[in-house]
Structures are given as structure tokens and as C-alpha cells.
Automatic annotation (TrEMBL), chain A:
Gene Ontology CC, one term: cilium
Family under the similarity heading: Belongs to the flagellar radial spoke RSP3 family.
Protein name, entry field: Radial spoke head 3
Coiled-coil intervals: 227-254
Pfam family, one: Radial_spoke_3
Main location: cytoplasm
Localisation per UniProt entry: Cytoplasm, Cytoskeleton, Flagellum axoneme
Keywords: Cell projection, Cilium, Coiled coil, Cytoplasm, Cytoskeleton, Flagellum, Phosphoprotein
Keyword Chaperone attached: no
Region Disordered: start-end pairs: 373-394
Phosphoprotein recorded as keyword: yes
Annotated organism of origin: Anser brachyrhynchus
TrEMBL record, chain B:
Protein name stated in the entry: Radial spoke head 14 homolog
A Pfam family annotated for this UniProt entry: HEAT_2
Naturally occurring in which organism (per UniProt): Anser brachyrhynchus (Pink-footed goose)
Record InterPro entries: ARM-like, ARM-type_fold, RSP14
GO cellular component, one term: radial spoke
Length: 448, 335
């Protein structure tokens, strides 16, 4: 009974120590439970509390653990436990048999003592019947009914009519003196307290509401302040940013303008230097060009060139023309003379003619020399001798025409002007000398 | 004997002018029906009862769900003045609870009453409006084009009503200021700034603050800067706080800054910053930061940086940050 429990649900667990032993043999001499029909062993206790047969019979006895027989004592190392010896003593066996017999007997006695209904008569049967006035259905299931209840939405309940009960009974009057019914001051106190209390409570509620509102407002105000501050900060930063940006733009613009100006200036300088260099030899080259193209002229030279020389040329031209004319005339004269001579010589014999031309050339020579002399004197001043020359030429040509023979091949090596003297080439050799002289005169004429 | 234990219920009141209130959830629907009855007496009774019930936010919520607001709007135009007055009161209390009255278009209904000749309602009308306005109702108010009307009323009404109107205006103008500016708000507000009543001055300054948050408003508020600077030395801290706030926004633009410097705003602002418990501290620090962006301002404030150093130890986070920024700006050099 080391761990006794007052109320066992299942007695077998109660004492672990005892449970093991309850079904087995106990060591000799240990007291047994005296409860009827209980074979369990108890140590120093009359009744064991664990087995159900004894539970209700005798009160539980508590024993000390130290003196419990069932607790193993001593050295447990070398203990050879013989839990239950299979060899039983004769005495033990006898005792057990007896106990069993006694238990059986007890049971039979109990059974017999119970009241029973007598057995039914032959041919009849016992039936359970209810004898009350109303039959009742008996079942082990309890009849349950679900009931619900709910408040409906209130129908409009008309106000309760004022209840004035009918008058019954007898009228009786009585007189109440002061102080008989109640003491006002005492009675009124709780009422007053309630009144005042409720009023205060109402007032407190209202004040609390107002306070709550005020706090809400204050909270909102604080938040609004913070918000305003943040908003102002944002706007300030925006403003600052705008200013900085504008300043940056302006500075950039300024810088760009400066760069532009610098670029222009360098270009200008470069252009100026280049132009200067380019134009350094402008003046000399210009003057060179002008000089080369003849813009700088000596006026006298120019004058001589423009006026004098053309005049001179024209004069020379005229003179030459005159000379040419003279020569042409001479040409024609010579030609006619030669033709005539030819005609004349073709008709006459040749011998008579050689002397005649021999003589005639000499006067012709003389005439020619005279003409030479006159012409040599006239050479320097040709202008004034114009009129004489054609005459002299005419004379010469007449003479030559008489003297000339038929034109044979003449020695024309001395001739300087072939054009004028073409007709003379056909002259004969005999007349060559004379012709030579004629030609010399002509050359002189031409060269003047 | 009656016990004196205070209960959670409202004390039972036996008021003959009130309709009896049904139990539990049935109370408000019943009152709803009563309100729609043709008899004005019933309506009055119902409204009185409703007025008491509406102090409870749960009831307000339920009322809006049931659809009370429509009936109340109709009642606003009732011929009987008591009915109108009570309805306004009820709307006022409902507005305090902020349970979404705005969507029901209450503001436009209230606006129609603004022109009511009887004085009593007029005293009450702006109060639900001012309660409804921040900030969601502001759009509604603007939408209904009430601002010129409010400005007009501002000139002629009693002081308390003016305060309410100014409150409403400050909330609305935060959203949009052009209407107010076009109806000549600045002249009116300038007058109010020199009003004898303290609350009106502070609220007028608040309205100017709200106008100043917009860019076009800043230019206009710049004209009022000298008056605001003189208000900085006012005795009432509320006025000081509002004036500082208005200055803070007005000095964002350079013209405002120059005029503020010209009006010698720096000494009073420094005093405000030095005061440990002043409400205007944050705004003052911010305004000084703005002024420090100008070269003259910076020069003057370089001597006072120790005051900002003190502010760095303030327990309020925003003040600390503002002081840091202020010191940065003051010590900034262009190179």
C-alpha cells in the first residue's frame, strides 16, 4: 500500500507493487486480505484496498513503505529471484482449494437469497406490462424535441392603455401625521445620489466626447503642420533647383557665346594675316602688270608713236606709191618699147641693128648718167623732185624703147626687183649692158 | 432602495418632447419611418430622439446604412424651422464621426440652406461643412462652387460663423485656390488678419497658408507679407504659428523672400525658433531656411547658427531634420 489512492477507478493499477502479487502466491506467513473472496495478500494490513471485492467492505489502511513485506530488501545484485515456485506445498494447495470452495458457496448462497418471480405456469408466459393509466413508450433513447425561440421584429405595439382598475372594496380614510411614513431626509438621499450621479455621468460622457474631438483636431493639426513643413521644403528645393538650373543654362550660354567669339576672332586674325601676306606683292605685281600691258608710257615716245610715225608711214606709203607708180609707168614704157623694138627688129636685118644699138646705148648711157646725177642729187629731197622724176623717166623710157631689140634673155643677176623688171628678162644679150645700166638706175630709184 | 452603481447605459430620460425609442436594432428604423410621417410634431419628436442617439458612432453607421441621410436631406428644406435646425444639428454630430457622409451628397444639400434668412440655422450650417471638408469633402465643396459664396458670407457674418467659414476655406483652398483668388480673397483676408479676435486672426492666417501652397497663390500672398511679419510678434501662439506657416510658403518664391527680408522678418523668426515650446518652431526654422537662400539672409544668419545647433537636440524628429537642413543651407558657399 505504498501509494494509496482514496478513490480508485480501476483498483488494479493503484499499487504497482501489490498488483503483481495479487494473483500470485504470497510468501509464507504474510497476512491475507480478510475480505470475503479476496485472495490477495496484504502486508500488515487486514484488507487490501486494490481489489474490487474489498473496496466497499472495509476502509483502506495505509501502511508504511519501510515495513511493507512485498518490498524487496537487501542486496539486489546477487538475489536470485524465484518469483513463484511451481512446487507448491501441500498445505498451500489445500488452503487454496478450500478458499475456492468457500467462494463458490458464498456465490450460491447469494443467488438463492435473491428474490425471484416464480416461474410461469404451464402454457403461460411472463410478459412485462405497464400498469399505469397511460401507456408509456419505454426506450433507452431519450426523446428529444428541438424547440426554437426568436424574438420577431417588434410589431408596432400600441402604447399600453392606462390601466385604471375598477374600484372595489370600501373606502377607508386615515390620517397620516408628520414623520409617520418616512423620514424625508433619509429617504431622499439615495434618490439624490442617483440623480446627481447620473447627471454627472451624462456630463462626463459629453465632456469626454468633446475632449476626444479636441484631441482628434489637435492630432490633425500636428499632422497638418508636419505636412506643411514638408511641402514647403519640397517647394523650396524645387525653387532652388530651378534657380540652379537657370543659372547653369545662363552660364552655359555665356560660355558658348565666349567660345563663339573666340572662334570668330581667331578666324578673323587668320584671315587678316593671310590677306596681308597675299596682298603684300599686290602693288608690285599690279605695277608690273600695268607696266607690261603698257599703261606707263613715256608721253613723248607715245606721241611720236601715235602721231608721228603713222604720219611718217603714210608719207612713206605715198612716196612709195608714187615710186611704184613711176615704176609701173616705166614698166609699161619699157614694155611698149621692147615690143616695138621687137617688131622693129624682127623686120630689119640683124647686123644693121647691132651698131645702132651700140651707138644708141652710149647716148643712152650719157643720158642715163645725167639722169643718175640728177637723180642722185634729188635723192635726199624726194618730195620736191616728184614732178621731175616722171619726166626723167619718160625720157628714159622713150629712148629705151627705140633702142631695145626684141627681148631675149637678159642677164638679170643684177636685178633687185624682179616684179618691176619682168618684161626685161627676155631681152637679148646684146642689149644687156644697156639694160644693166637701166636696171641700176631703177634700183637706185627703188632704194631711194 | 435604488442602487447608485453607474451603468453602461445612458440614464433613462423621460423627455416629453422626444419620441419613445424602440428596443435594440429596431430603434433607428422606427425613427426613420416617423421622420417621413406627414405630421410635423411627430417629425420633431423623432428628430429630438435621433439627436441623442447619434452621439454613438455605431448608431451613426447603422443610420447611414438604413438610408437616413436621404430623409435628412429632404428635411433640410422643411418649412418648419425647428425641423431644419434639428436636422442640421444631427448632421453636424454625424459629420463629427467621419463615417462617410460625404458620398451621400450632403454638402450640396447643405449649400442650399446657406442662404437661409433665419439666423439660427446659419449659425449651424457651416459647422457640418467645416467638419466634412477635410480633406475629401473639399473636392465636393469646390465642385459645388461654394467658395465665392463663402467668401461673400465671410464679410457679413458673426464671428463664430466666420471662424467656421475660415476653417472650411482653409481646407478647401489647400486643394485648389484659383476660385478664391478670382473672387478677391486676399483683400478680405487681409482685413481679417487685423481683426480683434485671436481665433479669426489665426484662422485667416491659416487660410493664407493654404492659398500659399499653390504657385499662383504665392504671388498673391506676397503682398500680405508685411502684415504677416507684424503678426509674428502677436501674443497668441496660435496666431504666431499660423502666420509663420503662411510666411513659410510665401517665401518660397524669390520675390516673397525679398519682401520678407525687407520687412525685417528675421529677428521675430529667430525668437520663435529659440522658444522651446512654441508651436511655430518647425515653420520658423523652415522659413529661415528659405530666407537663408538669399545672400543677405545668409550673412545675417551666419551669426545665429548656434541656435540651430540647439535645435538639433530637439526630441521631435522633424525639427531635428529641419535644423540640419537649415545649417546646411546657411553654410553653403557658391564655390
Amino acid at each position: 500500500m505504498s501509494f494509496p489512492r482514496a478513490a480508485h477507478g480501476n483498483g488494479g493499477i493503484g499499487v504497482a507493487v501489490t498488483a503483481g502479487l495479487s494473483a500470485s502466491q504470497s510468501p509464507a506467513g504474510s497476512p491475507r486480505c480478510r475480505g470475503a473472496g479476496c485472495a490477495s495478500v496484504t502486508a500488515a494490513v487486514v484488507v487490501c484496498c486494490c481489489c474490487p471485492c474489498c473496496r466497499e467492505k472495509e476502509p483502506v489502511r495505509y501502511a508504511n513503505l519501510m515495513y511493507d513485506r512485498r518490498v524487496v530488501r537487501g542486496n539486489t545484485y546477487a538475489l536470485q529471484v524465484v518469483p513463484a515456485s511451481t512446487q507448491l506445498d501441500l498445505f498451500e494447495i489445500q488452503r487454496q482449494r478450500e478458499a475456492r470452495r468457500r467462494a463458490l458457496a458464498r456465490k450460491r448462497a447469494k443467488e438463492q437469497m435473491q428474490l425471484r418471480t416464480p416461474e410461469p405456469v404451464e402454457g403461460r408466459e411472463h410478459v412485462h406490462v405497464q400498469t399505469e393509466l397511460y401507456l408509456e413508450e419505454i426506450s433507452d433513447r431519450i426523446i428529444e424535441v428541438d424547440m426554437e425561440c426568436q424574438t420577431d421584429a417588434f410589431l408596432d405595439r400600441p402604447p399600453t392603455p392606462f390601466f385604471i382598475p375598477a374600484k372595489t372594496g370600501r373606502d377607508v380614510a386615515t390620517q397620516i401625521e408628520e414623520g409617520e411614513l418616512f423620514d424625508f431626509d433619509v429617504e431622499v438621499e439615495p434618490i439624490l445620489e442617483v440623480l446627481v450621479g447620473k447627471t454627472m455621468e451624462q456630463a462626463l460622457l459629453e465632456v469626454m466626447e468633446e475632449e476626444e474631438l479636441a484631441q482628434l483636431w489637435a492630432h490633425q493639426r500636428a499632422y497638418a503642420e508636419l505636412r506643411n513643413a514638408e511641402l514647403a521644403e519640397v517647394q523650396r528645393l524645387e525653387e532652388q533647383d530651378r534657380r540652379y538650373r537657370e543659372e547653369k543654362e545662363r552660364r552655359k550660354l555665356q560660355h558658348m557665346q565666349m567660345l563663339q567669339k573666340q572662334k570668330e576672332t581667331t578666324e578673323k586674325i587668320a584671315a587678316w594675316a593671310f590677306a596681308k601676306r597675299y596682298l603684300t606683292d599686290l602693288i608690285p605685281s599690279v605695277f608690273n602688270n600695268l607696266r607690261e600691258s603698257g599703261f606707263f608710257y613715256d608721253p613723248i615716245e607715245r606721241d611720236i608713236e601715235t602721231e608721228f610715225l603713222p604720219w611718217l608711214m603714210t608719207e612713206v606709203e605715198e612716196t612709195l606709191e608714187k615710186k611704184v607708180l613711176g615704176r609701173m609707168m616705166l614698166d609699161s614704157l619699157i614694155r611698149t618699147v621692147v615690143e616695138k623694138r621687137l617688131d622693129a627688129f624682127s623686120q630689119e636685118p640683124l647686123s644693121g641693128q647691132t651698131e645702132a644699138p651700140a651707138e644708141e646705148p652710149r647716148p643712152i648711157d650719157a643720158a642715163l648718167q645725167e639722169a643718175d646725177e640728177t637723180e642722185a642729187a634729188d635723192l635726199p629731197v624726194t618730195a620736191s623732185e616728184e614732178s621731175d622724176q616722171p619726166v626723167a623717166e619718160e625720157q628714159l623710157s622713150r629712148r629705151i624703147s627705140f633702142q631695145l631689140e626684141e627681148p631675149d634673155r637678159a642677164e638679170t643677176e643684177d636685178l633687185e626687183t624682179d616684179v618691176v623688171l619682168c618684161p626685161f628678162r627676155r631681152m637679148s644679150l646684146s642689149h644687156s649692158r644697156a639694160l644693166k645700166d637701166v636696171f641700176q638706175i631703177l634700183a637706185l630709184l627703188i632704194s631711194s | 432602495m435604488a442602487s447608485t452603481r453607474i451603468s453602461a447605459q445612458l440614464p433613462p430620460d423621460i423627455d416629453p418632447t422626444k419620441a419613445p425609442i424602440a428596443f435594440g436594432r429596431r430603434a433607428l428604423p422606427k425613427l426613420n419611418e416617423e421622420i417621413q410621417s406627414p405630421e410635423p410634431l411627430t417629425q420633431q419628436h423623432a428628430l429630438m430622439a435621433l439627436c441623442d442617439l447619434v452621439h454613438d458612432p455605431e448608431k451613426v453607421y447603422q443610420a447611414i446604412q438604413i438610408g437616413f441621410v436621404e430623409n435628412l436631406k429632404t428635411l433640410l428644406l422643411h418649412h418648419d424651422s425647428t425641423v431644419r435646425q434639428k436636422t442640421t444639428e444631427i448632421l453636424c454630430i454625424m459629420a463629427m464621426h467621419n463615417v462617410g457622409l460625404i458620398q451621400k451628397g450632403v454638402i450640396s444639400a447643405l449649400a442650399e440652406l446657406l442662404d437661409d434668412p433665419a439666423e439660427i440655422e446659419n449659425a449651424l450650417i457651416p459647422s457640418p461643412m467645416s467638419l466634412l471638408s477635410p480633406p475629401a469633402g473639399a473636392a465636393d465643396i469646390l465642385h459645388a462652387g461654394l467658395i465665392p459664396l463663402l467668401m461673400f458670407k465671410l464679410k457679413s457674418e458673426l464671428d463664430e460663423i466666420q471662424e467656421l467659414i475660415l476653417d472650411t476655406l482653409s481646407n478647401c483652398l489647400r486643394v485648389e485656390a484659383s476660385e478664391a483668388l478670382s473672387s478677391g480673397a486676399i483683400t478680405i483676408l487681409k482685413q481679417k488678419l487685423t481683426h480683434s479676435s485671436v481665433t479669426i486672426r489665426s484662422k485667416a492666417a491659416r487660410v493664407l497658408l493654404a492659398i500659399g501652397t499653390h504657385p499662383e497663390g504665392k504671388v498673391v500672398v506676397g503682398e500680405v507679407i508685411p502684415v504677416l511679419v507684424s503678426l509674428l510678434e502677436d501674443t497668441d501662439p496660435e496666431v504666431q504659428a499660423s502666420a509663420t506657416g503662411a510666411l513659410m510658403f510665401a517665401t518660397v518664391k524669390p520675390q516673397g523672400r525679398f519682401s520678407a527680408l525687407g520687412a525685417e522678418a528675421i529677428p521675430p523668426l529667430l525668437k520663435l525658433v529659440a522658444g522651446e515650446t512654441s508651436k511655430a518652431r518647425l515653420s520658423a526654422i523652415k522659413t529661415l531656411t528659405m530666407l537663408a537662400e538669399l545672400p543677405e539672409g545668409r550673412r545675417k544668419l551666419l551669426d545665429h547658427t548656434d541656435m540651430f545647433q540647439q535645435c538639433l537636440n530637439d526630441p521631435c524628429e522633424a525639427v531635428k531634420r529641419a535644423a540640419e537642413i537649415a545649417i546646411c543651407v546657411i553654410k553653403w558657399k557658391p564655390y
